[in-house]
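Hey, can you fold this one?
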Amino acid sequence: MGADDDDRDKAATEAKQRGIDLYVKMKYKEAERAFTEAIEISTEKDLNRHLYYSNRSACFMQQSKYAEAAADARKTTELSRAFQKGWSRLGMCLYKIHLEGRDDLRAIDVGNVEQCKTALEKCLSLGANEEAKDTLRKVQEKLRSIKEAQREQQQQRRGNNNSNNNSSSVFSKVGEFLSTARYQYSYGLSDTGRIIVNCIVAALVFFLLRNWIGLGARRAGRQVYGNGFDDDFGDFDDNTFTFGTFIGWMVLYIAWKNGASPFTLYMLAQNLGLLGNNNRRRGGYYGGGGYGGGYGRRRGMFF
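Sure. Predicted structure:
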């Protein structure tokens, strides 16, 4: 970090302290401005950056600006997933926005309630918090009541239009599932957890594309080039080859997510056999004649 970055981070820390002093004096608007200044001055590498957003979120909450407070709390959890106050404030804000004072249970979006529940559960997983615990209990009770009210509404509609209701119910459940899954992915998983999920999804997409597109391309190739296609691309339909190539890509992805330089990625791709050469692969990862066959070079994926 250069001298200029050090000066900026020092100024941001001073602005944060000024904001804390104003907050203690219950001057929430002035404190909000001080924390905004800290956010604007600070660099991306400032380790206290999540505190500036968290403190500004608290100022917004004191002014009943719950949408703005939720946005800052969400940013706090992105910058520091292990910071309990970020999750607590996010859960409280979502409760205020989507649940508090809402009497028409059938009009409440279950996905928003699930997000609130997840944030509070994440908060409690990081330590004791009586306010979050009490709010979570209210959210769970409200969630049960909402689902019961919506089931009753669906049953009433089913008598008038059963097929349309079933279709609507299915789409509603799918929407709720996707909303919850997206939120869990963004805020309920660690960085390592998201990498693992990305790899699993990539594996599923890989095998689907291989079966739906890859084999179709092979058949098309046979029609155009005849048996010559198999001679030149005989390993196209080889499970070992295709899975080995997929693993190579996953290794590159994980290295990239962990900050590997372009040169390191290039050398790693070359060692994994992804950069190609003019020689055909012999034996894949385990060799053509069993484990004794050794590692062979695969046909390149880039050129």
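Residues 235-241, 277-303 have pLDDT under 50 and may be disordered. Let me know if you want another pass with a different chain boundary.
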